[in-house]
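Demo today. Your pick:
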Amino acid sequence: MLTRLLVTLLVSQVPEGNPIALAAKKAVQARDAGVKALPPADAGRRGAGVQADAGVAAPPMAPEVKALVDRMQAFYETTQDFTADFKQDYFYKLSKRTQTSTGTVVFAKPGLMRWDYLKPSPRTFVLAGVKVYMHDPEAKLLTVASLGSSKLSASVTFLFGQGRLADEFAISQKPCATCAGTLLQLDPLVVDPRFTRILLEVDPKSAQVLKSTVVDPDGSENAIAFLNLKTNVLPSFDGGAGSVDPRFKLTPPPGTQVQDYTQAGAAPPAPGR
């Protein structure tokens, strides 16, 4: 994201609501809407830049909310990686239908993310360095585009230990009888055309995020529940400067068409779902 959120690759036929894919699409939408992009210099200070430009300061959090947010922030700042199964429910407000997807996800520092969709159809999304990869095995297509972690909001980058939620959002606790953890509502300090608010269910003991729900301007909701969470389980990788952990590389089978939009002269992919 240019300075905001959990987030559709600029190609068609991607699973609705994938965070990496949504980030690319919504970044383009925000650009077209005239939203000012911040320089990708210091990911941890982008929120402060938003406040300075807009003259908006976050209201003080309730003490118990601040304590939980601080613990959550510290947890992810000291966590090197985490893996989980996920269940994603994308609710379309206009058509009143929900699309459910399941799979596995891996986050690792610095700024690595991999989503392997299993149902309803296999797809893989990877964020590695400044590149995004999308593999559709049924279409025999691998798409490569540019979207570094500096383009993501604190609402995503804090999972990498970068960016501070309190710099971009007003955070409050909301009642929720069905939640597995404490429900926090994040309202952007600056009006954003890409989403209206974010809801995080946080485990009060571990301070891990159990579920994230992004509410779109049209009322649609993208809810991702993280299941079987495990932290600091990946073997260390040190392949030298400029190398990428092979767990965040995609090697498609023979016969796969590769569309690389990061190459000079390549036309950008057309926005779509």
User: Anything to note?
Assistant: The chain has one domain: 19-235+256-260. The helical segments are 19-32, 46-54, 63-78, 154-157, 165-168. The first helix runs from residue 19 to 32. The two ends are 17 Å apart (CA to CA).
